[in-house]
Structures are given as C-alpha cells and as structure tokens.
Amino acid sequence: RGFIVRYRPSGGGQSEWMMSPLKDISLSGTSFLSERPFPSGTKLQLRLGLPTSQRPVVVEGVVVRQRRSGWEGLVELGVTFCDLEPSTRHQIQQALVHATEKASEGRPHG
Predict the structure, then answer these.
(1) Residue 104 pLDDT grade (very low, low, confident, very high; cuts 50, 70, 90)
(2) pLDDT tens digits, residue range 75-103?
(3) Among 13, 34, 47, 90, whose CB has the most other CB atoms within 10 angstroms?
(4) What is the DSSP string of 3-63?
(5) pTM for the full model?
C-alpha cells in the first residue's frame, strides 16, 4: 500500500475531496499532482493515507509552490504542514521509516 492524499480547500464546506498519490512527503510537508491549481497561500485539508496507518492521518497544509507537471492537465503542488500534533508527526515518521526500509530491501547488497 502506498502513500495517497485526499485534499480539498479548508473551509470549503461540502467541496468534493480530490485524490492523488503523493510524490514526496517529509515531516514538514508533501508534494503531489493535482487536477486543479491552487494559488500559493491556499489552505488545504489533507487526509494522508499512509502504509503504516489503518485510518487516514488528517492535517492542514498551506500551498507554497505550484508548477506545471509533465502530465497534461495536472499541476504539482508543494504543501507545508501547519501545526502538526506530536501524534501525527509520529505517524508520519513511522511511515517514512517503513518506506525507507522497504526501499532498501530492493537494493543489492555489497
């Protein structure tokens, strides 16, 4: 199971959740491809699907970067997390460790 994000503008009421695989994630933020552009400064609600968590990890983030991707109709968003709770930070850290271990399993030793 990989890293997935569901996202929508914060305070968007009943706006529809969009979904994308994560391109990158760290303890400070994430990047992913979006069908819809969001200007820098836009607050997003994020539901992170992590391979080490049964339920999505819910965080708020702010768009800090938007650029064209190599895919038609998609933009790459860079999002910084806002005020992560210690438990949320721990869940993301566990997922990062898990992903690093999985990646190293596939590498030849020697």
Answers:
(1) confident
(2) 999 999 999 999 999 999 999 998 888 77
(3) 34
(4) -EEEEEETT-TTPPPEEEEEEEE-SSEEEEEESS---TT-EEEEEEE-TT-SSPEEEEEEE
(5) 0.86
